[in-house]
Amino acid sequence: MEEVPFEDRFVPKVEVDWERSFWWWYPITRAIHPAMRMASLVISSLGVVMMLEGVRLADWLFAPRFGEQFANVYVRSLANIPLAPIEGGQSQLFSAIGLRELAYLTFCLLWLTVVLGFFGGILSRRAAVELGQRTIAPWGVTVRLVASRLLSYMWVTGLHLVAISVLLILPFVLGLVARLGPLAYVAGALLLLMYPLVVVIGRLVLSMFVCYPLAVTAISCERNADAFEGFSRSNNYFFQRPVVAVLASAALFGIGWVGYMIVFWWLLAGWHWMRDAFLTGAGLTTAELFTGPRAEGATDGLQAARLTTWVVAGAGLTWWIIAAYWFSYFWSATAAVYLILRRSVDNTDLDEIDAVAASDAASLPNIPPPPNMVPTDPGATPTTNS
Question: How far is CA 236 from CA 222, 231, 239, 240, 331, in A?
Fold first, then answer.
């Protein structure tokens, strides 16, 4: 066997297609970019304000009696102190929930569902388009699509609550049977026989909190998606790939802090420099703004008091937008997790996202008849010149 010199040997070159092998790397590492844009931060700030104002409005409308009653019941339950029965034979815990409390909770649930669905749908869709298709979705098209599916966002939560309520009917009926005295043992035995319902109810409760963001993203991204599709996709993806979801979420949480520090120093440095330039032009220093002028010939205290209000408002706005980054990043990270889970379970490409059709249908231009065609009345067939 003839030996081939080393320099004449052919070594095949092996290349790794990083785009195909590590497809999950792009949505994870780029998730901070949609969240850091100023338009997204402003939308997030508006969404947070809407949520807080809705809860405040519900408190003003219904004035629920929450607070000390629930705190006392909770402390006594921890200390194993039996709750004193009151009117109707019910405990203090249930007596504290009246019509006003139910109205308050219902209003808050509906309000938060609408606000989270609308603003979360907008932010998650724009993030999914940017992470999957590597382009930026127009704001107008995104808002119209999300607004057209607003009922689906609301019904995602409703599906969970309806399913849980239906499953709780059986234990409730057994509780009514247990009041009949001798049948209490039978009702207790049947309750243990229905123990498998614990798995179903617990999964629905977990899904209502964990899978809700994924359901909102599914409704925003899939073609003609509704509440049921968002419900089924979010549950299937999460419960089939829980480890992938947790690992992706952990990685995104760490990367999110990078974006937060960038936004923090970006806005805070910009505001401080702009504030100092403004105060220099007004003849004030930061110390004089808050403590009043001390040297002779300095700007009077009235001017400083007038400017203090606006400077404090600007600082508050800056901190509010910085805090709103986490709301924006939450939905951007949710879009990244959804795209990764969908690719892992269904092997669907990242760029397969519902495209909104143009509002104006494209039409062909009017083509004039050939020269040898003699136009006739609209109802007649054109004739040719012979």
Answer: 15, 9, 6, 6, 19
